[in-house]
Amino acid sequence: MRTFLHISYEGKALEDPWVEADEDMYTRSVDPRKAPDEPEYVEIEFEKGDPIAVNGVALSPANLLTKLNELGGKHGVGRLDLVENRFVGMKSRGVYETPGGTVLLTARRGIESITLDRGAAHLKDDIMPRYAELIYFGFWYSPEREMLQALIDKSQEFVSGTVRVKLFKGSVSVVGRKSPRSLYRQDYVTFEADQVYNQQDAEGFIKLNALRLRLAALGRK
User: Fold this and answer.
1) Mean pLDDT estimate for the chain
2) What is the CB neighbour count within 10 angstroms for residue 74?
């Protein structure tokens, strides 16, 4: 199956999970071994969680994904060989090419890392498997999917900014991120001049957090 997001391959030789996919099968990405020997840097801009531009050029969702498919595929990014659990109960092996989607996921996590509060980020991570399962099983129009969507949309209210990723030999990694709504404060996090709290304040914090462990140790004596 071929869509903007991915190409999936199933059946024939792939039905044996021990057999490696033939290199000639791939059409959207080059063999990482044959990818350029120099990395390529790409900047992706987000607004309220939605990607809106690549390298400073505003693009529609379809054109943006097409561009990232081109860039990611050029560097062999986004290949995945997995055995999945179908809704009907059996296991099925599939091979996927998702260069643009892989770049987007990495970049999205990068911008969220500086714009989402810790609790919000953890909650979003908790519900992601459930949300993905609903879509995989075909429940896009279910009330529970819409409820989760409202929560996710709320989480993206301040997820705006730019992420710089590096594409190289089948990998994509975040190497820079910035946002006008960033929660990252260099004046707070710096190791050079501590202006946030007195280090001695940690003593009481450590004692309180370790209390249950000390009580458990006493109980074993």
Assistant:
1) 93
2) 15
